[in-house]
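This follows on from our talk about sequence and fold. Please put the record directly below this note.
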Amino acid sequence: MPSPDTLATPLAPGAPHPRGGLWFEDFVVGRTFAHRLTRTVTQMDNMLFSNMTLNPQPLHIDAHFCETETEWGRPLMNSLFTLGLMIGISVNDTTNGTTIANLGMTDVRFPAPLFEGDSVHCTTEVVGVRASKSRPDAGIVEFHHKTFKQDGTLVAECRRQAFMRRRPV
C-alpha cells in the first residue's frame, strides 16, 4: 500500500493532500481558521518539555520556588511548549503533508500566563501569500497564530512563515 505522501493517482481539482493539508493555492489572505483541537495543559507537559530541552528554570518545574519566590505562586507553563502546542494544533487544518519547511517565526509574544489545568484553543489567520522566486513547485505562506485559554485571554501569538507545496499538476 503506498504511503499517504505518495500521490499514486491524480488529485481531484481542489482536493486537499491525502493527509488533509492545504496546498499553497488554497491559502487566501484574510482567511481565519478556528481550530477544532483543544488541549488542557498539565504539570507532566511542563516537566517533560522542560527536562527534554534541558531547561532547569524553577519558574516551570519547582512548585515550592514558585510559591515562595514568584508573583504567580505556581509554575508557569514553559513558553516554548506553548509556542509548539499552538503551531501543532494548527497543522491538521492547514499544513499536514504540504509543508516543505518552516522558514521562521517573528513577533512571538506571551501576553498572559498559562498554568497547569488551563485549556487552550487556537486560531490561525493567513496574512501573506507569495510564490517562491526559486522554486516553481512552492510558495511562502505567512500565518498569524493565536492561543487563548478557556476564559478567552490571549496567552500566545506569533507570525510564522511556511514554505508550502503547490498542488501537483
Notes: Residues 138 and 165 are 5 Å apart (CA to CA). The chain has four helices and six strands.
